[in-house]
Amino acid sequence: MDLFPLWNSLRIAGISTGIIFFLGILAAYYIARIPRVIKGILDVILTLPLVLPPTVVGYLLLRFLGPKRPIGAWFLSVFGIKLTMTWWSAIFATAVVIFPLMYRTARGAFESFDETLAYSGKTLGLSGTYIFWRIRLPYCKQGILAGTVLSFARALGEYGATSMIAGYTPGRTATISTTVYQLWRTDNDGLAFRWVLVNMAISFVVLLAVNMLEKKERRNRKGG
Amino acid sequence: MSVSIQIEKQLGTFHLRVSLEAGNEILSLLGASGCGKSMTLKCIAGIEKPDRGRIVVDDVVFFDSEKHINLPVQKRRAGLMFQNYALFPNMNVRQNIYAGTARYREKEVRAQKTRQIMEQLGLDSLKDQLPSQLSGGQQQRCALARILVSDPQILMLDEPFSALDSHLRFRMEQEVREILKDFGKTVIMVSHDRDEVFRLSDQIAVMDRGGIDVFGTKKQVFADPKTRNACILTGCKNISPIRRLADYRVYAVSWGMELETEKSVGDASYIGIRHHDTNGEGPENQFLCRVISETENPFSYTVMLRLADRPDAQPFGWELDKQTWEKTRSELVTIRIPGRSIMLLEEERKD
User: Fold this and answer.
1) Reported pTM
2) CB proximity under 8 Å: A 127-156 to B
3) What is the ipTM for the molecules in this complex?
4) Which fold has domain A4-223?
């Protein structure tokens, strides 16, 4: 069994989760602070990828990043890089798909934050940066961690948009999900089943972690 | 050292308009919840911005709408203790207090200040505990230490004892009183508990729907609350609308009584008589009353009375010590309402 798809899936999910961790938190933090009407519209736009079919996300990505499309063409002419059909192209797809997960869990966590902590920090002379990193984030730690793990799990299982933008090339762009589809299509049922088991094992562990984090958060809230 | 506050702010249902002056003393804002007292503290601290006005603490202008001055919260040096103490839950006692030293630059100074205040307030043995592991009283002490170490020029306490169990409350009140005495600068406390306010403060401002009904020393405010609302907030339970009969004579509509007053009636439209001031020795205002009910308190009785010949009148209360009532208990009693215990009240403050 060639383990490349496992390794490829893990690095794609890992990198996209890393990026979305920061983008999601920043979006959640700043969007809570803007006027209500704009907030409502932005919130819908940012959550959209959660409900769109992944193939629609893939289509839209190709519309912008494809070699003959505005952004793709520019990158090709300036850097000589093709943005599609490489292993890291899948990062675009997974990042867009998991962004709403991270954004929404982070926002939920921030909304539960007791704002008097920030106020009292300010009256003590603490800077806004200090309050964000040393008080607000630690307070919301469990919620944000749960969101991160959930995003990672979702990234690991991304199929639709990934297959459109990165394709399936064994040993180059193959991920667990695209491999399962290929193996099943080519009647290699035994191997497909083994990959299914691998995927289920990883997802099981991840969801277990999410549950434990959420339970811990509830306990902490009660104690505090 | 002095504090001068004149602010106005439109809030959802009412207009906040507060004007206060205070020296190095403890000033309490007494009022029901939602009267704007906490909002006043937030405006002084800089968490909320008034629409108009001026806030000056110890010659430093915190806020002046005309000169467009609005000092950032961090620069105001206004310590504010929140009702829930707002200790940072992820930091232990020492770290919480250390965070309060942010205005000092050098690490050694910060560490030393932290050690000093922990020793002073007896928090040394708790320094590694998280806030969630502390009792209510310990949390309050930690919150006070954290504020005091930040060297505030004014100290504000928002309902400081409301989160404590009643048996702890009195002890913490004593402790806090000592700490406030040492602080020596202006303290503004917000509370809805008249006993607590009376014990701790020098000056009292009674607030209602965004404004100040009466402002003065605690003795003045409790002796002459001036408005019906302030009278209720200072704990008076016998209140009746009146008709003025003469300069020193009124008819209490609820109780059906004609009463001699000590002070000139003026514009008053209500009177208040405290439960324990209902009966005195004087010759004036003698009434034969029927006992309607009696309630036993831990250390006293509250007896509800009504004029014997006016079965349609409202009852009024009389509080007296247990022994006296047990000796004199009967269905009909004669009471003498002293003229000086009648508080003349106005319906609302004059703005």
Assistant:
1) 0.82
2) 127, 130, 134-135, 138-139, 141
3) 0.85
4) MetI-like fold (1.10.3720)
